[in-house]
Design goal:
The complex is a heterodimer of chains A (about 110) and B (about 110). Chain A is mainly beta. Chain A is built from no helices and 11 strands. In chain A, strands 2, 4, 5, 9, 10 and 11 form a 6-stranded mixed β-sheet that branches. Chain B is mainly β and about 110 residues long. Helices cover about 0% and strands about 50% of the residues of chain B. Chain B has no helices and 11 strands. In chain B, strands 2, 4, 5, 6, 9, 10 and 11 form a 7-stranded mixed β-sheet that branches. Chain B has a 4-stranded antiparallel β-sheet with strand order 1-3-8-7, with no helix packed on it. The chains are: A mainly beta (about 110), B mainly beta (about 110). The interface between A and B is medium-sized, with 21 and 25 residues.
Chain lengths: ~110, ~110
Amino acid sequence: GEDVEQSLFLSVREGDSSVINCTYTDSSSTYLYWYKQEPGAGLQLLTYIFSNMDMKQDQRLTVLLNKKDKHLSLRIADTQTGDSAIYFCAESEGGSQGNLIFGKGTKLSVKP
Amino acid sequence: DAGVTQSPTHLIKTRGQQVTLRCSPKSGHDTVSWYQQALGQGPQFIFQYYEEEERQRGNFPDRFSGHQFPNYSSELNVNALLLGDSALYLCASSSRYYGYTFGSGTRLTVV
């Protein structure tokens, strides 16, 4: 079945870049997402990428997609303490309204 | 513009009881999806409602049921609660032209 894998923890210094990696298994996924979850809160959509794209940049966020290796990464430039949260990678079955399959999340800790 | 609203925010129930969680979608959205997020895990898809019908369903038992009303709001019902049903339940609304918007969730504790 479909599966999404992420490393569980990442620790960086304030001002450094963070790179969070994700692998997925469903080659038919058309949309891939990055969500942010702060303690006690719901999910905030950070960015998404269509499967026919290699890269997408949105301010401090850069998403890279290697479709051949089914590898997705999220780079956060100039990481701030407010970026500390859990980041989830998700793939969508069946288009933009297909159900989302999430990884277990990567906890990002930003040290001052 | 209000986003997705879920109620209640927290709930404590006893094993064997039944619970109903509620969700009001974001304005302009006609589709509601429910997810269960156990502690330390990613959200898992329960089901999706569109035009008052269950359109997709994940791997959850029949104890989990839902409903969508004509105003697009939705309820999630869980019968015969188990300790393992303790989780954060997230509602997400969407439409053909807009991606998912998640609510803040309902934290259900079963004791």
